[in-house]
Amino acid sequence: MPVFDETHARPALLEARALAFARNDEPIFGPLDFTLSAGEVVLMEGDNGAGKTTLLRVLSGLLAPTSGEIRLHGEPLTLARLSPQVVLLSHQGGLKLELTALENLRFAAGLVGQRKGMSPPSALTAVGLDGYGDVPVRQLSAGQKKRVALARVLLAPVALWLLDEPYANLDRSGIELVNRLLERHAHDGGAALITSHGAYAYTSGAPRRIALHDAQRAAMTLPTGAMA
Amino acid sequence: MTPGSTPAACAALLRRDLTLVWRRRGDAFNPLLFALIVVALFPLALGPEPEQLRRIAAGIVFVALLLAGLLALDTLFRSDYEDGSLEQLVLSPHPLSLLLACKIGVHWLTTALPLIVLAPLLGELLHLPGEVRGVLVVALLLATPLLSLIGAVCVALTVGMHRSGMLLALLVLPLYVPILIFGAGACNAAQAGLPSLAPLLWLAAALVLALVLAPLACAAALRISIS
User: Fold this and answer.
1) pLDDT tens string for chain B (227 positions)?
2) How distant is the Cα of B91 from the closest Cα of chain A, in angstroms?
3) If contacts are CB pairs under 8 Å, which of residues 156-175 in chain A contact chain B?
């Protein structure tokens, strides 16, 4: 087995080989093989309960895979090597409801640092929440909370975005916003793995898609350059 | 401090947790009120003879503060677990044990310290002799951080479960017993006119050990809990 996939011009940022996860002997997903290169957006599609969220938690190092391996820049993934390079948007969002949007973002910036040329207020502007900085997150709508969470992702100085259902709760302009942010991130050399249950989709560009089917035997379709 | 450095991360976490306590300041009074009620009930049940109350005052104050601390313990990681901020702490490029030590520090500062300030007053309600008051406060200053640190490890183990309150109490109370014995023992020794330094030194030694080991154990337990 070749250690390095020669067909890719750029080194794979993230690579999964025969990745599978089972909880109490019940397979959740896999075995899966895929690569994620810099400058690429990969859309993970699957029905509710297909294991999308679990896959993202495995890829972010929070859960250990049952079998198979994950490689980061060609080397085995550890939480210590991954954590300076990744931001995870989970469905809880990770926001403190009692704090304002700006306080949440300032905390995130203090914790992981901030992207060059970006600050908590400018990240908030970038997600279309100008003027909501001093509003407690509790008073924001579900879609606005999602936007604050996206601002946190945008602010983090990392290359790898793992986004769990980034389109959920967003209106049409919000969906376009996510697409725009993803496009810019890929253009700047970042990579993103996003999940969706298929109702909304990453429409711009031609993202690679990985289909997660039923837990028992998740087949995956990965013809290079499969179109939307 | 450069943003993203470990000191900056700890400062951001301290600031956030203190702000959160301030925003939820109504909840912060619950342990104080609880301790006050427990202590106020004893004279009602046992009768108001100062001689009898004086004998058991230190023990009652200690138990009341221990239970009040237990009441506040479950909130340590609960909201962070539920809103996903705990994942962010785990995924941040800083030592998780250090971040958790900051959280435990804020928790001690905002739940235990007000109780210690209240303790002399509680002692007064039970006719605690004046010369024991100092020993009681010193014993509490050594014992309550120890309770917070040991409690945090147990909370980290149970935070992933629903309705973990009873389990938490079962896990924590046996570990709290030695602390109670040494802490109240120091007060009783002082009250009997005996030297009280030895139990206090035992508490101090245990505290030093827990300060180093508990955050590490806490980090390991949390990693298990969120997986």
Assistant:
1) 566 789 999 999 999 999 999 999 888 889 999 999 999 999 999 988 999 999 999 999 999 999 999 988 988 999 999 999 999 999 999 999 999 999 999 999 999 999 999 999 999 999 999 889 999 999 999 999 999 999 999 999 999 888 888 899 999 999 999 999 999 999 999 999 999 999 999 999 999 999 999 999 999 999 998 88
2) 5
3) 157
Tell me whether residue A172 is in a domain. Answer: yes
A-B contacts (CB, under 8 Å) = 93
Please give the C-alpha separations between residue A142 and each of A63, A164, A174, B20, B216, in angstroms, as whole numbers: 27, 15, 12, 21, 36
| Domain membership of residue B149 as a residue range | 6-226
Among B62, B64, B63, B78, smallest CA distance to B31 is for B64
**A190 close to A159: Cβ distance less than 8 angstroms:** yes
Residue at A7 is within a domain: no
Q: Return the CATH number at A20.
A: 3.40.50.300
Cross-chain Cβ contact B91/A79 below 8 Å: yes
With a CB cutoff of 8 Å and minimum separation 6, the contacts of A221 are A209, A210, A211
- For the record, the structure tokens of B145 come out as 């951080």
- Is B73 contained in some domain? yes
- Tell me if B1 is assigned to some domain: no
Is residue B136 included in any domain, yes or no?
yes
Beta-carbon separation of A90 and B84 below 8 A = yes
ipTM of the complex: 0.87
